Amino acid sequence: MNSLILSVGHTAIDHISTVPHFPEPDSSIYIKNYERLYGGGAANVAAAIAGLGMNSCLLSLVGTDFGEYGYKDHLEELGVDTTHVKEIEAKTSNAFVYTDEKDSQITFFYWGASESFPEQEVPRNLSDYDIVHLAPSDPTYNTKMAQQADYISFDPGQDLPVYTKQDLTTILRNTELLFSNVHEIERIQNKTKLSFSEIRDIVETVVITNDDEGSNIYSEETIEIPAVEAEAVDPTGAGDAYRAGYLTSIQKGYDHEKSGKIASTVASFVVEEVGCQTNLPTWGETVDRYEDAFGEKP
């Protein structure tokens, strides 16, 4: 059977703006640059996986306005299987992302169609997928997915505030691979009342990203992965690209260290353009940059 990775969660329209700094309450600020682009954590991961040549499927909810954006055609042209992308009577999710001159970000997220996730049934063919990646999404639905899939990759991301202690604990106990950044892992610990050591005991592999400082992989051993240098323009979507690179690599049979290096390489492409899916690399492009960065073949 061909390798299949299913990404579950939001498909969104990103409104990406650059501001000189974040305004104080009861004040305003001018926007230096603005673009409307394709986004949503699950869709970003699915798109990047497809761009790398892996069989990629997306499970997501979109609104009746989805066809206006040309997004479905874009995903299918990349090679994403959209069988589980369901249109409902609502508006498609929208993310309003503001980045300051220090590359700090504030995001306002309108769930729209994603609010209907709790009413949805889990697909009957979950066993067809080698990896089910739970991107930011509804906690109730992600919990059901985690309890039924064979291999779970989990990234609660910016949706951590809507998770309960029980949601997180249940999913973690069914998770093989956890992705988080340095800020989110603290929130996971605070909400679950689990120490990092206890989380490591529960989850087979934990990957913690830290922007341009690289990432750490905690599995049988602790592995430090450097960030790959790039002419960074916009950090939006770098984390999703990293996850896509990592999932693709482990599915191709690479070990954790090389998977982390490949993931870092994929992320380096995305930050070079504005938007999460504007500059997705192919596998060949990734291998070439990997060799330049690390002086070896992956």
Low-pLDDT residue intervals, each spanning 5 or more residues: none
Residue share in helix: 25-40%
Q: Please give the count of helices.
A: 9
Domain module tally: 1
Give the CATH class.
Answer: Alpha Beta
The N- to C-terminal Cα distance equals 24 Å
Percent of sequence in beta strands: 15-25%
SSE succession: EEEHEHEEEEHEHEHHEEEHHH
Q: Mean pLDDT, rounded to whole units?
A: 96
- The assigned CATH architecture is 3-Layer(aba) Sandwich
Task: Using the CA coordinates, give the radius of gyration.
Answer: 18 Å
Fold-level CATH name: UDP-N-acetylmuramoyl-L-alanine:D-glutamate ligase
The profile of the biggest β sheet is:
9 strands, mixed
Q: In CATH, what is the homologous superfamily? A: Ribokinase
What structural class do helix, strand and pairing data support? Answer: alpha/beta
What does this molecule look like?
The chain has helices at residues 41-51, 71-78, 139-148, 165-172, 182-192, 196-202, 238-251, 256-270, 283-294; strands spanning 5-8, 12-18, 33-39, 56-62, 80-87, 93-99, 105-110, 131-134, 152-154, 177-181, 205-209, 215-218, 222-225. The chain is 32% helix and 24% strand. The chain is built from 9 helices and 13 strands. The longest helix is centred in the last third of the chain and has 15 residues, at 256-270. The strands form 2 sheets. Strands 5-4-1-8-9-10-11-12-13 form a 9-stranded mixed beta sheet, with helices on both faces. A 4-stranded mixed beta sheet has the order 3-2-6-7. The mean pLDDT is 96. The protein has one domain (5-229): Ribokinase (UDP-N-acetylmuramoyl-L-alanine:D-glutamate ligase, 3-Layer(aba) Sandwich). The protein is of the alpha/beta class and 298 residues long. Helix 1 (41-51) crosses helix 7 (238-251) and helix 3 (139-148) runs parallel beside helix 4.
